[in-house]
Amino acid sequence: MRALVVAALLLAGCALGPRYERPRLDIPPEFRATADTQAAAWPAGEWWRNFHSPELDALIARARVFNDDLAAAAARVLQADAQARISGAPLLPSLSGTGDYSYQRSGTGSGRRSSLGEFSTGGGHYFDSRSYSIGLQASYDLDLFGRNRALLEAAEKTAIASRFDQETVALAVVTSVASTYFQVLSGQDRLRVAERNLRDAERILGAYRARLAAGTASALDVSQQEALVAGQRASLPNFRNTIEQQKIALGILVGLPPERLEVTGGSLDKLPLPMVAPGLPSELLARRPDIANAEAQLQSENANIRAARANFYPSISLTASGGLTSTALSAIGGPGTLVAQLSAALTQTIFDNGLRRGQLEEAQGRYAELLANYRKSVLQAFTDVEQALTALRYTSEQEALERQAIAVARRSADIAQAQLQAGTIDIITSLNTQQTLYNDLDLLTQIRLARFQALLNLYKALGGGFAVTGAR
């Protein structure tokens, strides 16, 4: 057995690699959409509190506890941890206890069977014997070529990847709650604009009916204003439907039936828009949980390749057992027969019809796939940040310009209404200015929602406060 172990140790000098090295990446020096990349202001852990909305804070707090996607991600972490413990078990010997009892009757003599089937003995001699034994048995597979350790490392990296996946799910849930809540607020803003414009149109309609009664307006003037009022009134149910649909959608995110969810809402125009600077692209690798997840999976498969290579080498198993045997149960605790055994076995597969080669090539192919996924996740991260920065920049510009357009449209509408009452313009001109103001106000609420969505996407693209501890 000593020669067997020595030979195995000599074989163990073979390198089973490959050692994991982070893939080389084409990382740009700065983001395209902004020149201010040196002053990084990464999102804080609870970045959503910067919107200063207590209702949003409460919804997100509940989602982080009761969301079912998050619960499933947490369960996957438990499974991965358990698999790591399973994979690490062969690194230590296994120990089991044994116990045995046997009974035997033997002897000589004659006997006959009665009509009832009973066996009766004559004058022969019979002996009863009983034996008892207890013992311990240990077995251990020598991990000379690192197969078991590689499998443990693969399982540990998978467990780490599951934690990064949990962070990715949490970030998606939080941003989904915020996005849906902002759509509720935007819908309420659009509804208020529509209701205000409906009230203005009804007031003008009342004035036209009074002028018709006085003979200073025509029936066509009244009919045209009535058509405008009817169209604006017909738009209200659609806004209410949108608001309710978004409130219902919040239920599944926070883990509540829609019937039990109460959302007050408010106005998107009253919430602040906190700013965030993206920092350098190279820092983004440690700020995105999906990138960390992709790299952990890559490391896990690298370990699986080493385990697959170790399968080409022989396996050595050691077994040891010992115990006591006795013919009397009372003698187990005293003098008895001591039994001990030690054995070693070497196993080397000679022919497996390409099984091990196929397992190695499968692991190598899987690594190549995960490498492509890792590179794509990094490229996707840069793309997400650039798109969010670009959207935030242009929606901010658009909102500022739209507010200017609203100021102009409001002055025009006020002038048109005054001139209409004075009788210096016709109703068509007044209706056009009124409709322009209405459209601009409605468009502003949509632009502001797009700006909030762009900021949410930027928070998400920057990892939402996540950071890999000790990352390079």
Please outline the helices and strands.
Blueprint: H1 2-11, H2 54-66, H3 68-88, E1 94-108, E2 111-113, E3 119-121, E4 125-142, H4 147-214, H5 219-254, H6 289-310, E5 315-326, E6 337-347, H7 355-422, H8 427-461
Antiparallel strand pairs: 1-4, 2-3, 4-5, 5-6
Description of the molecule:
With 472 residues, the chain is an alpha+beta fold. It contains eight helices and six strands. A four-stranded antiparallel beta sheet has the order 1-4-5-6. Strands 2-3 form a two-stranded antiparallel ribbon. Helix 3 packs antiparallel against helix 4. The radius of gyration is 39 Å and the shape is elongated. The chain starts with a helix and ends in an 11-residue tail after the last helix.
Short description:
The chain has 472 residues and is of the alpha+beta class.
Per CATH, the class reads Mainly Alpha
Largest sheet, described in full? Answer: 4 strands, antiparallel
In terms of per-residue confidence, which ranges show pLDDT below 50 for 5 or more consecutive residues?
3-15, 113-120
Total helix count? Answer: 8
Computed CA radius of gyration, to the nearest angstrom: 39 Å
Strand residues, percent: 5-15%
Helix content: 55-70%
Number of strands: 6
CATH architectural name: Up-down Bundle
Assembly context of the chains: single chain
